């Protein structure tokens, strides 16, 4: 679930991604409305990980597991357009999809990822310009 402000419509929105047995559903509710709006649904993968979406630059963001590549990506939902897209992780993120899930967060208004490499060292990336594929290593 995620919560954020849509400055184009001056409304707060709640976004819920439901992981049902046969499919996933993405639903949006504007505060003050009496019902949820179904925005998208799909079966199987991608699987959204974690409960809280991170609000950055009018988007809510989660880590997603992609089935076709056994890789992770950022699942990003645009609150203005009510559309979603995937952002690739930095190329130097070497994660074993079965064991190591990167953490997603925000730092000073920028989307960040952190990853603990097998307990040996911690790497943190910060996306300084939202939507650009390259994340800078901090």
TrEMBL record:
Domain F-box associated beta-propeller type: 3-127
InterPro entries for this protein: F-box-assoc_dom_typ3, F-box-assoc_interact_dom
Pfam families on file: FBA_3
Name used for this protein in its record: F-box associated beta-propeller type 3 domain-containing protein
Species for this entry: Glycine soja
